[in-house]
Amino acid sequence: MKLRFLFSLCLVTTLAACGGRNVDLKLYPVAGPIAASDPSQAISMSMGHQTDTSGDITFRMPPPTKTRCKGTWTSVAPKVVSHEHGLSLSLRGPGGKVSNSTQDVGGINSGEIYAVCTDGNRIQGHFISGSGTSSGTGTVTDSLGNTYKLLF
Question: Which of 2, 35, 56, 146 could form a disulfide with 48 if both were Cys (CB 3.0 to 4.6 A apart)?
């Protein structure tokens, strides 16, 4: 019984370590009140579900407010859909080939983020990322007049 319990505990711990890994994004203030007070304050954002085309983001604004913010990111990954239909006549009788396939297109994907903070501040922006990568860049603004450079 103890062996079964230890095995279950190890399995759950291993699965928890594999899933839910987050990618860190950074917002660097380039204009507005935060950039005027201290432009070196980078805001770290946690991005969930980085292997999907959308997920959650969470972060805290810099001092003095340190308000909590959460929202969503989404990315558009273009795909090519191909359909193949064919008919062939042979001595063995009619035949043919029918197939459908979907493939990712390599290149640059565009995306957006949107978040709302507990004080009502709204953050929104656009970014681009490389296909098949977890890196990108973009520009983000908030409703308090700040502009940020987004890097991940």
Answer: 56
